[in-house]
Amino acid sequence: MNEHNQFAGETQRIPVYLLSGFLGSGKTTFLTSMLARLKNEGKRPAVIMNELGDINLDGELVSRDVPMAEMLGGCICCSIRGDLGVEIASLVQQHHPDAIIIESTGAAHPMETLDGVTDASMYASLELRSVITVVDGPELLERRKLGKGRTYKLMAEQIRCATLLLLNKTDKLAPDQLVEAQQLLRELNAHAAIVPAVRCGIDDWGWLDEAAAPELKERDAEAGGGHSEPDGHHEHHGHHHSHSHVMAYTHYFDGPVQSEAFEALLKRLPDAVYRAKGVVSFSDMSSGSRYLFQYAYKESDFIRIDPQGHVNDVAVFIGEHFSKDELRKMIEELQVKS
Ligand SMILES: Nc1nc2c(ncn2[C@@H]2O[C@H](COP(=O)(O)OP(=O)(O)OP(=O)(O)O)[C@@H](O)[C@H]2O)c(=O)[nH]1
């Protein structure tokens, strides 16, 4: 474990991108271009790949200079979920990547995978930045026609939790089908940017880097709303949607907080936040008192822990498109008081 301070400021956090999407939708195709893009920017990305089978064929497509952890023989979200945090933490220690991409199997429930990512935040300074769901356009329309079976439900869930929706294989969609697919995506997810693509090719990579957001917002403002879509959304630079309406917010504490104030904060969480988890130190307990907390459906639970090795004071909040800024303010107020 690194000896230096791990309560890293925002700039030192490693962005984590979760790549989700149905089997064969084009995740690996997108992973390849994301890696090329990040390397072009001088970054050192690392990859975690998860395959249902025992051999990872897609892994062969990732060049050997990219550190990669493979989680085979199961789905990140169920059988080996506990290992995801460990995998991420050891990848960080060994390779010090400055971006991590997790490609989950097409059968994964993204909320469960997100939960696995939160575990890793306790051991390494991470920030889940985007959930990119690659959607197989023709398959989506086909599945909807077939009715709302389990497969369609999983697809819908993957779409719902995305911050960026890549509507892929549009070369196989007629113009009216393209419109239909976009409408369906918007019904399932009111906030995420929808980007139609062929072979996952996209031009706008602003979402990769949060620092790019203010500049893009300005560009939108300058456009004077000229880019508005019929439904009032700015699809072209949809970043501000994904930035103000996040799925997960990771907060690294600067120091201990007061226990009752923290419990009160959990009670005041907006409904859109349905899970939170982390490690906190309480200022009003005997020194060194650290607690693992869990929050789900308005109920919270604290367990006293005495971790071996370095563990961050961190809280991760998961939900559906809540405002990260508001939540950050709530926690910062708490820290001032304590
Ligand atoms: N026609 C068409 N085919 C595409 C497009 N994008 C990807 N494909 C093909 O779709 C297949 C699946 O692509 P992958 O990138 O392997 O998809 P995946 O989601 O990683 O697949 P799994 O690993 O099986 O979950 C490949 O044969 C691609 O060449 C597209 O835009 N149009």
Notes on the structure:
The chain is α/β, with parallel strands linked by helices. The protein has two domains: 10-245, P-loop containing nucleotide triphosphate hydrolases (Rossmann fold, 3-Layer(aba) Sandwich), CATH 3.40.50; 253-337, 2-Layer Sandwich (Hypothetical Protein Yjia, Chain: A,domain 2), CATH 3.30.1220. The protein is built from ten helices and twelve strands. It has helices spanning 27-40, 81-95, 110-121, 137-146, 150-160, 175-188, 213-222, 239-244, 259-267, 324-337, and strands spanning 14-21, 45-50, 68-71, 99-103, 126-136, 164-168, 193-196, 245-252, 273-281, 290-296, 299-305, 314-323. It has a seven-stranded parallel sheet with strand order 3-2-4-1-5-6-7, with helices on both faces. α2 packs across α3. The longest helix is centred in the N-terminal third of the chain and has 15 residues, at 81-95. The radius of gyration is 20 Å and the shape is globular. The model is unreliable at 1-11 and 211-244 (pLDDT under 50). Guanosine-5'-triphosphate (GTP) binds at residues 21, 23-29, 58, 106, 168-169, 171-172, 198-200.
